[in-house]
Design goal:
The chain contains 14 helices and 11 strands. With 450 residues, the protein is α/β, with parallel strands linked by helices. It has a domain of 202 residues: Amidase signature (AS) enzymes, CATH 3.90.1300. It has an 11-stranded mixed beta sheet, with helices on both faces. The radius of gyration is 21 Å and the shape is globular. The two termini are 29 Å apart. Bound molecules: glutamine (GLN). Belongs to the amidase family. GatA subfamily. This is Glutamyl-tRNA(Gln) amidotransferase subunit A. GO terms for molecular function: ATP binding; glutaminyl-tRNA synthase (glutamine-hydrolyzing) activity; transferase activity.
Amino acid sequence: TSLLDRIERLDGDINSFVTVTRDQALTAADAADQARAKGESRPLTGLPLAIKDIFCTQGIRTSCGSKMLDNFQAPYNATVVEKLQAAGMISLGKTNMDEFAMGSSNENSFYGPVKNPWDRTAVPGGSSGGSAAAIAAGLAPAALGTDTGGSIRQPAAFCGITGLKPTYGRVSRYGMVAFASSLDQGGPMARSAEDCAHLLGAIAGHDLRDSTSVARVVPDYLAELDAPLDGLKIGLPKEYFGDGLDAEVESAIREAIRVYESLGAKVCEVSLPHTHLAVPAYYVIAPAEASSNLSRYDGVRFGHRCENPVDLEDLYKRSRAEGFGDEVKRRILIGTHTLSEGFFDAYYRKAQQVRRLIRQDFLDAFEEVDVLMGPAAPTPAFDLGAKKDPVSMYLQDIYTIAINLAGIPGISVPAGFAGKRPTEGRPIGLQILGQHFAEGQLLNVAHKFQ
Ligand code: GLN
């Protein structure tokens, strides 16, 4: 109840929750108390959790930050929600996000922007901005997020928390509203790598209901946390330290890397030569997949339906015109254009070829080093309302987006503050990238820094 009261007191201003499930939380808390009394408690029993509003939750609104789904109550739970509830976690509610996870500032939400708890004139990042802000404000110790092009790592960086995007296929996407299906991946957000390890262990694994989830044993992520770092080879991609990188961010990241050297790691420079193509390739592939996924919102089966349609076409047109926000419409237009006959080869096929090159860059780098390190974002959190044109917003994703195209995992770890620290400063995130299924190593490396 103390967290629920805290949410009531503080979240009117921060706006990190879209729905608070007070009654369900209190019932689950009673069940957790009983389990404890019977000696049946497990590591996550009774721990509170916030869930990004992209995950289906049975009988509870699942809006995905959109007017289109404002009236939608999911008839079933996402696999990860089911797993965390089975592990005894108590859901506090659903967190705010950019509409259909499209954005890097949480300003694209139908429910209004989220404020960064460190500095309420700044954005919390996006699209999992509500989850990151809720943790930073002490409203929830842990949360679920999703990351299609940085949406776990960038808000984690902006809010001074830890967020992990797992390898594509490590965590089931069943019941996660689809944005770009070949890139989307759910993952943990929390205060520390250790807490992320607990959550990841509970949500990872094969799911018969998601054919892209991978049948591979889930390791004990906690057991790996304390392994020594002696001899760890860290690569610094030179493309991640170039023009456009804020000076305070760069010095915080270089400082963090010195800490790793002092822990016994070896550092060298590497190159990911196709980095400059990641943003353009992503902003062809992601909208293409989104335009296909979002065609299901037609005003017929579920979601927003316009008043008094005169015929079927009017129903489709007005329901979609009214239900979707500007950024979502922009992506649907881009996606239907690049997939259309005559443009497909020039855009979509080309972008898929670039995607392969980007993946190969990472595989080549991991021949030389164990992990890569760099900034999670080129700047600290920017001001609310500061980025008006979409391209400047898309460029926020320059360091996060490539790994989704490659399918590898990445984590963002708090690494200091820009500006007057720590009371008025804005947090900075160190990003650590690893090979496919190296989550255990990333958590270990992140844990050593904390
Ligand atoms: N900012 C990126 C976009 O707008 C990534 C979003 C995400 O990871 N869901 O598409």
